[in-house]
Design goal:
6 helices; about 35% helix; alpha/beta; about 15% strand
Amino acid sequence: NCYKGMGCRNLQITDEPGHEKWAFDACKRHFPNSRLFWNEGMFEVLGEASYSGFRSYYYLAIKEAMQRGVPVEGIGIQYHANVEKEYEWAGNPWHPVRHVTNPARLIDALECYGTLGLPIHISEISLPSYGYDPHDEQLQAELTRRLMRLWFSAKNVSAIVWWNLADKTAMGEE
């Protein structure tokens, strides 16, 4: 999530002009049969501070890179919905999760990124159930069903890639 001079994660190479082209070209040279996706985090792509349609950093970065000949062959949008169960965000209209779970916002974002003409992968999916009681697992199953239908309803979404299938394995202490 480093965009021109924003200094995110303090990676100086990402502020150098042309670093995207250098990285994608190197990957294409060493892995010629791989499809190269630009993959970003959920809040960087869909969050309140980051997503503003065709003016979003992620959208503009990909568009500009493609115009400069960077061989971007797909768009990755991570979706780690790891919110602490005890933190009741549902009643908080300012909690950042509300923006990335809003169906209208998700469809708008997928349609916006879809105008770039690249396949979109919803990547690194984590939808934890937070426990092993039937209610948590039913909620997890219902969220999964609804999100899968929503994601695949967007024209350019071609894949969904799960980060982990077992709760508390990729994230958590167990």
